[in-house]
Specification:
The chain crosses the membrane at residues 16-49, 61-88. By secondary structure, the chain is mainly α. The chain has one domain (15-92). It is 74% helix and 0% strand. The protein contains 3 helices and no strands. Helix 1 packs antiparallel against helix 2, helix 1 (15-29) packs parallel to helix 3 (59-92) and helix 2 (34-54) packs antiparallel against helix 3 (59-92). It is rod-shaped. 32% of the residues are buried. The mean pLDDT is 88.
Length: 94
């Protein structure tokens, strides 16, 4: 009796790419909340780079997560900078 349980090809792990995409989406959606956006953006960038290196089948998903994470973190930093400059100019006028 021949039992061939391992005749299916192994699929590459897509966990890093999926996690990077989810964190990138969270980073963009919550870009107004810097305490959520910046950490999720940084972790999403790290996982996106790792996903692009490890997984050949989900490189598009890892790249999308990487780009979204960068956009979310940059938007959050930009909003903090604009808000700080606005508050500084507001306090200078008094």
């Amino acid at each position: 009796m021949d039992q061939n349980y391992n005749n299916q090809p192994q699929q590459a792990p897509k966990g890093f790419a999926i996690a990077a995409l989810v964190l990138g989406i969270v980073s963009v959606v919550f870009c107004c909340l810097w305490y959520i956006s910046i950490p999720t953006g940084v972790v999403g960038i790290i996982l996106g780079v790792m996903g692009r290196k490890k997984c050949t089948t989900a490189q598009g998903m890892a790249t999308a997560g990487l780009v979204l994470s960068i956009i979310g973190a940059v938007l959050s930093i930009l909003l903090i900078t604009i808000l700080a400059s606005f508050l500084a100019s507001l306090s200078a006028s008094f």
